[in-house]
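Sat 14:20. Reprocessing the chain from the morning session after the first attempt stalled halfway. Input below, unchanged.
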Amino acid sequence: MKTKKSILWLLGLMLCATPVLTACSSSDDDSNGNGNNTEKPVDNSQTAKYDDLAVFQNAICRIDSAGYLLDYNIGQALYEAEPQHLYIGVDDIEEAANWFRGWIAPDVELAAITPTTTDLTAQLTDTLGHSQGTIYFKAGSGQSVAEVTYSPETQLKYIDRITFLLNSAWPFNSGGTQWHRGDIHEFHLTGDCYSGLDSNDKTLNFVLIREGGNGVKPMWCAITNNSYNYRLGTFGKSDFELIISSSYCPGYSTAESIRRNLSSDWSYFATKFNEAGEGKLEYGESYWIDNRYTEFLSTYHSMYIYDSGYTHGSKERSSKQPFLLKIDWLNDGARLFTVSDGTNMNSNYSCINIFDGDNGTAWISYMQYDFDTSDRADGSGKCVYVEFSCEDPIQPKRYYMTYHHWIGRYDPLYQACPTEWKLYGKKNSRSKTWEQIDYRKTDELSKISPAYCCITRYFDIPASAQDEYRFFRLELWDASKSLRSAGKPVGIACFGLE
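Finished this time. Tokens:
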């Protein structure tokens, strides 16, 4: 009897985990700006089954395991009164239609509403063939190139509609970008996969393969032999383990976008990846995604390059064939910081996470008053801290912090947002004294919007402290003390200076 109950418990746990991993996986989280749904190769040796709604949802949004919004992969809300109405800048209707095709699962046949128009419909079904409603792509007029809407029974989250605007009509167009196609930069990997990496794989040289702007994020890629998957524990006394693709591993629509961007100028990007020094695009243009890997009812994604001897959909992989990673959440024009020291440098919840622009990662530390905390710069007590620098001196006028509700769920007994902090600066590394830039004691970060479960607050730097600095120190603490030996958790998801 006990054995039967254990089996039923395990099976129930797996079934409960399945929709979370299928519908909310961050690995299938991008879209194809140059795509054409009809051109995707299919492995005929195995029937593909897709949750079409989840594919479309994950192409637009990143959603956590509890179903809350982490971030948008594509699109920007231009008006505060319509936070779920997303806008994307395009040059013409063809570009808008290609974006739309890239969000549709491979097993969905797009139907033209009439033979003479560019309007399209997508009938969505789940893996059992049950209807999930209809998504419409309709041409617009004037500055509105096209709009994406859906039928009432289509249970999309956090998306009311998507409008494609002419790039020339984009209201916040700055007229330029900081990042340009072919740029190479070293990024420090963060998040859930971080703690399991070899030291040599924690930083990689990424190449910018798609410029960002007007609602489209820049896309960076690196080559590595590490798949960057991570394991999600074991269940009971069995050997069941769930292997999850990290957010660096491209899913189906992301990989299609990567393939088309690279194929548009293969020799140029081959030169750039060679210059980056992490790995070469030496297998030619024919490569595919292992998008059929299934374990315990869930499908996981990775991408690797095939040589000319392989066919699309082949399951055998040579150990010499590298993986392609993507990092596409860095906002265009974002300032890059290098972390030199801080609390939890080598954990999943490292202080490094607050500089990746990703609300799905966070810096979380316990306010222990023994080994986890450090002395404050002014000697007034204990704190958790991070020290970082930028490439050139800057004169910030304000800074921002983002707090996400899931940080509190990490330890649900406590509100984990900081209620006090100090920001310091130094002009050079030789100085032993930190100059105070700002001090706050506030509960503003605890007031999370129900629509997003995430809050970003901007704080003006006093005019008297607006000077040029290159080195910074941020200290977080909470005025309250916990009776628990572990202390009180404190954390934020993102931080930046402007």
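Residues 1-48, 234-241, 285-319, 480-485 have pLDDT under 50 and may be disordered.
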